[in-house]
Protein 1
Amino acid sequence: MRTTIERRAAAALAALVCVAGATGAAFAQQPEETVTVREALAFLITTQAVDTGDAARDRAAAVATSQTLSRALLSALATLPLTSSSAAFTYRFNPALGTLERASESFGPFFVERAMTAGRGRASFSVNWQYGRFTRLSDMALRDGTLVTTSNRFADEDEPFDVETLELRISSSSITFSGSYGITDRVDVSAAVPVVSLSLEGQRTDLYRGTRFQQATATASVTRVADVLLRAKVNAAQGSWGALGVGGDLRLPTGREEDLVGAGSVGARGFAVLTAGTGNVSGHLMAGVSRGGIAEGFDFGGAVSLNPKPTLTFAAELFARRLAEVGRVRQATSPHPRIAGVQTLRLVQEEGSLTETHAAVGFKWNVGGMWLASATVVLPVNRAGLTAPLMPSVSLEYSF
């Protein structure tokens, strides 16, 4: 991994004027060095030149903001939604015929689990690719340079006379290798190993009285294994009406927390899932509770699968999760402590839970034999946390 941070001096900026008088703020050169993604992000957030008259408060707010943004990125990457562990081809024993038969005509949804299990001795292996280009942090745009981190404004003026803005370009590409195996007709175990490539580029700019100065730049990239997911699922009941299942997940802290691709601690989740219908149309409902990892929370989701023909399944899904104590970043304004008539804006941390909601649409196609190709697009439903306008995903699965 190569990560560089560069802080550039602006020789033309001899002083930053807060009000009628002048106060100087020097920009020292910082040479290239190898740092973590978390450090690169913290550098961009905490590097400040605007004189707010309260350096200690500025530092505390910047550090808290950096930590909250890191947690938002962690929640988007270290717990990124993985495709369902259910095998596309599911089987059950028909006692009347004395043979195995397909348990469902559908190949199932993408992210919402389904209650059916693959069947004793049945296995599947899949490779999934997913890409995300993150553009917003809650209601704040990240990539267009309009995110104001600090500013000073006269109370009788509409625009700030000294303002710092941050531009962040964050993207991720992940390849997930997963497999499942039917221990019995009603018990499946599975594992998923995601390999995440994370890229971060950013710059911080100061605009004083119409004159722009590049204050700091940072770039970072990393490719490594994220947190590994282990899952077990039990088909508690099954019939022509559908199925009911329960299961549990275990996320192992195999990803590096410093590179924002790992939670840094073990996470556990229990879930229940109800599948209604085994024919050309089926519905799925799922709910789960999480402990450890990034944060405690719960999740729920629903999906509808439609089979226009035996080799093709279309699916539409809606799923959400609520994470406790993740926090938010917002802009807060307060009077300048030393200069009357000047209002100071800064980014601050706001405690609280975070609810992220996404929708997904796509298809699964039996291209031949036991091979299945699929493609889906994930879209944000609300602006909570770090979001991408869309996250495309494609995968290839083989069952045997």
Protein 2
Amino acid sequence: MALARFLQISDLHLGRPFAWLPQERRDLRRRHQQYALEQAIKYAIERDVHAILVPGDLFDGVPVDTGSLTFAVRAFSVPGCPPVFISPGNHDPASSDNAAWNSRLQQARGTHWPSHVHVFDSPRWSGVELTTLPGVRVWGRAFLTSSGTMERPLAKSAFEDAYAPAEDTIDVALFHGSREGRCPPAQKITAPFSDAEVAASPFVYHAVGHYHLRSEIEAPAGTDQPSSGVRLAYAGSPVALDYTEPGDHGAIEVVVRFGEGACTVSAEPLRLD
């Protein structure tokens, strides 16, 4: 069987003001965020993953401050960094005034994303072939405004005229959204989806951002779903963003084993905070 390995990290919220912390500790916490991203990329290189998946909220808001943007670009530009796929979320939408994703505004700030970084900038699903591993496509969609959306990303209608299966190919998705029935009290519901929609989805794995604590949806073997094991996972935020987010935080390594008509997915946490 073939093996695809991914590093998933989201909800980093670079540029977070951390106003709830004493003034002397805010810069330190922002350095913790930067260190977490650097360590995740280092791990991705050491583990020789095929891609890094970033399903939203890499940045905390619009406008993105120049320091945070410059740091992120440099972090993903280190030698050996695998392909990076980013689906902007509700905090860092792919709006025309967001310098994080607008090439003209990036140029004005004297920076640009390296060629191996792909940003999904449409609210419709679109797919990209994974250059590091034949037979794998990565799909994504973006938020266009910070106000969020109640459009359902995994509804049957969302795939019409946007998604088509390909022979001998598996499809992995990343997006930002809310699993119904599991929304934390401090977060708003946006781009909702149900467990039933996950089960019916054509993707073998769903990398999702928005919730800041790690969680998963699993499927047993022997069902008619495209894969068994971990069907969907939130990596959670790499570092705790406030006092309501206790416990370990980090990224996850996702391993997809596929071939001969079967596909199984596993996910292991990488502790960063």
Protein 3
Amino acid sequence: MGDAFTLFLVVLIILAALTRETFVMALLYLFVGATILGRWWSSRVVRKVTFTRVYDRKAFPGETVPVRLEIQNGSLLPAVWLRVQDFYPIEVADSNTFQEVVSLGPREKVCLNYNLKAHKRGYYTIGPLNVSSGDLLGLTGDRYSEGPSDHLTVYPRVIPLNDVKLPSRSPMGTMRHKQPIFEDPTRPMGKRDYQSGDSLRRIDWKATASAGRMQTKLFEPSIALETVIFLNLNLHDYHMRSRFDATELAIIAAASLANWVVSKRQSTGMIVHGLDPLSTGGRPLPIPARKGRAHLMRILEVLARIKAVETEPFAALLRQSRVSLPWGTTMIIISGSAGSDLFDEMIQARKAGINPVLILCGDHPTQRESARRAKMFGIPAHTLLHEKDMDVWRK
């Protein structure tokens, strides 16, 4: 109730007490009754209003997400007017905050529509939905009802890659390989004449009988590429001037490499050194190596939520995690810089039969020295200053 209307009622009460005029008394009863009725009416209607937000809760950057609001009046009283407001962050806003005024009859339902726009990666809160109402004359203050909040997950950008050369020591896989030591007996590719030293189990007896001389089966070389991506989002390891862009580039690189490995029907896992708001204690849980698109979407969901923070040294996490990796695993390390402690861990990993690959993201004063040390130790290293630097893997 507004201050002006309150003052008006006080004046009416004083006039009614002093004059005892029938008109003034009737006017006082009319406004007091309308106030009480309007307050009761709007409160009852607002309590009975239910609303549902229907939309796709996951999107990629650049996608438009249609949202449908279903508003229903569960009361036997009509809702003279309802102001519906929905709130969302600017990072997913297609326009200003959604607001609309509707009128609902008893048990009536209405659907309202608006759009969200996925501008950048993140995990965003959509809502709360706010519904307010009042009487037709505006004699009573608005009554409010607040609905639950939902969330929208915007995945990181995924750059399609075609030619990523990652080392592997695991034979008997599904990826074609040029090293004949990794021949796969499930992938025959032809025959040749028998040579001294060929195993008798590789002799094709039917072809031998047909050709009149000993024939040996040939098999297509292949490898199994099992990878684990170690993503370092410790802000201490990124240069202060480019921290935001460099960490986002690191996340895009991790998502793109995971997508490439899965597209080759290989296993990939991920361990992230950052902050996940949905994990207990904020530390992201390790994702074990698996195959399939469903597993890739699980990785992308973590990459959508993850945040770069100042935390403990990355090398300590690497030390704890690498001991559980199977022999022959390719360990992709994505970081902003690489110090001596990180190189020590990569060297120990090589001694244990693991294949480390170093990817440095963003501009850092120590990058040139890190690339030199990686070359000296025989560790494949790549430097990414911008997204376009990944074009070397797209050819």
